[in-house]
Every structure is written in structure tokens, then in C-alpha cells.
Amino acid sequence: MPTSTVQKMRPWAASPKDRALTGLSVLLSVLTAILIVAVTPMKGKLAYFALFFLAWFVIDSLFVVRKQGSKGVRDGLAAKVTLFGAVIVSMAVFSILWATISKGVKGLNLAFVTENMREASLFDPIGKGGILHAILGTLMLIAIAIIFSVPMGILTALYLTEIKGRAVGLIQFLVQAMSGVPSVVAGLFIYAAIILNTPLRSSGFLGGLALTILMVPTVTRTAQEVLNLVPRDLREAGLAMGATQWKTVALVVVPAARSGLITATILGVARIAGETAPLLFTVGVFDSYNFNPFKGDQGTIPTVVWRGLMGGTPESVQRAWSAILVLLIVVLIMFVLARSFGSKSPKK
């Protein structure tokens, strides 16, 4: 008895005719954009881009309305608006990366990442002096901020999601309010509260405290969202086995949200890594190594960038661009390391 093969049905997949119509609409949109730019005062890449998407909206909608009616037009319009937003965001990100890489790589060399500026100035030729002191200073400040902000942020998120005491509303309001605090205000707060009123002077520790103020809200809000995603069944199973609430949180909820909590830390680091304003008030500038976070000014990559751009000479500006590229690389390395450790399942 002959057997018949069952073919897979994919109703969501575009047919050859649909792909041909899509290609035709794109081609007509490109030609329309070129024609409008040629006969009107509108010029430049931005004009081509805007006119192409506008023409594509119109032309493709005409094809859709003929085949699917007005309902198909609404669905297609929503998809195109979403695509348009994604393209805009992608272009912004890639343009920033391209500008940073293309301008920063010109000043990168071995000396730039292995030497300090103790015997050089920002105005010396590229190749003399480097920013190793600033890299180490930035890592030190980030480490201080992580030590303070990650426990505070995660514990606050646990209180908001697990304990839900009387102060939940007030704490939630404070976290949201702190999320909108300008970075310069954090630096001014540490400067006015500590430097002006205590014997302490600018140091890496005070800079880490200023960055902590900025990092805590990001860690708290992200950790809160992650903890809310942990299934309620896991909590109920722990309690049903006789565990206390905090034992359930420590042994069940937190391990289940481990990857998300690491992501919260990464987002917090990304929030503070490039901050300059608070460091000008709390850390100052320094051209050599300072491994004591409690005494003396500290060199950091953001202050190197600020000084380089303020210098105004081709050499100082080039150092600033190269320092920005190094900062991106440092943050990327930290992101990769954090994700690699977070992806490993805990030992049982």
C-alpha cells in the first residue's frame, strides 16, 4: 500500500510572489528617493534614508491593501514602524562604534596601554606616555562601586519583591527618584558632605562612593524585575519543605535568578563606567599610579578623555579618542567575563 509523505506547512513563510512584491516595493522606493533628492533641495544621506522609508511605507501599503485589505495595511504599518525604530537605534549604535573605532585606533600602541603620563604631557607626540594608570584607576573605582552597590541593590530588590513590608512604597519612590539624579549631583553631594566637612580629601574611595550613588538604582530596579520573573512555584515548594522564608530566598530564589542578577551588575557598571562629572569633584586628576584608594588623587579614563578634549591640540584630542576606545574595550571584556561566569551552572 503506497505511503504518502506529509509536507511541512509553513503558512507564515512568504511565498515567492510575496518576496517578489517586497523586492519590487524596495526597488521602487529607492528610485523614488533618488528622484526626489535629484529634483528638490533635499540633499544628504539623511534625506535618502527618510525618503526611502516614507516611499516604502506608501508603495508597500498599496501592494498590501490590494491583496489583504485595510486590516493587512494596519498590520504592515505596525511592522514597518517597528522596523524603522530598530533601524534608527542600530544606526545610532553603529555610528558611535564606527566613530570611536576609526578615530581611536589611530593612537593605539603598546606604550599607550603600558605606560603612564608621569614623564609626558597630553600635548606630546602620540607614542610617548600612556593611560595604564587611568585604566587601573577606573577598574579600582568600579570595584569599589560594585562592592557597595551590588549587595545594597540586591538586598533592596529582595525586600521589595520578597518581604514587601510597610516601607515598600517609600523605598520604591526613593529608588525611582535616585534613577533620575544627574551624575554631577552625586559628585557634589560627596564633595559637600565629606570633603568640605571632614578631614578626608579627594581619593579613589570617595569617587567609588559617588559612583555607588549612581549604580545602586540601576542594580536595584533590574534585580527587582529579574526576581519577579522567578516562578512562584519555586518559592512555595521551598516553604512546603519546611524552609524559612530567608532560607528559601537564599537557596532557591537567588540561585534561580543568578544570571539576571549578573546582568543587573553589568548594567550598573555600564551606567558608571564613563561618568566624568562626579570624578572631577571627588577624585581629581593624576598622571601616575596611585594604588591607595584612601589617599591622593586618582587617574581615571573619563578624566583623561575630558582633559584631552579640553586640550584642543591634535595630540590631546587623539589621546582622548584612543582613551574612549580603551574604555569600550575594558567594559566589553568585563561584560564577556561576567556573562561567561554567569552562564556556568552552580556546583551541586
From TrEMBL:
Record localization: Cell membrane
Species this chain originates from: freshwater metagenome
GO CC annotation terms, alphabetical: plasma membrane
One MF term in the entry's GO annotations: phosphate transmembrane transporter activity
Key word Transport present: yes
Keywords, in A-Z order: Cell membrane, Membrane, Phosphate transport, Transmembrane, Transmembrane helix, Transport
Protein family (similarity comment): Belongs to the binding-protein-dependent transport system permease family. CysTW subfamily.
Entry keyword annotation includes 4Fe-4S: no
UniProt topology in membrane: Multi-pass membrane protein
GO biological process terms held by the UniProt record: phosphate ion transmembrane transport
Classification via InterPro entries: MetI-like (IPR000515), MetI-like_sf (IPR035906), Phosphate_PstA (IPR005672), Phosphate_transprt_permease (IPR051408)
Transmembrane segments: 21-40, 46-65, 77-101, 131-161, 173-196, 202-220, 249-273, 320-338
Protein's name according to its UniProt entry: Unannotated protein
PROSITE patterns, per database record: ABC_TM1
A Pfam family this chain is assigned to: BPD_transp_1
ABC transmembrane type-1 domain sequence ranges: 135-338
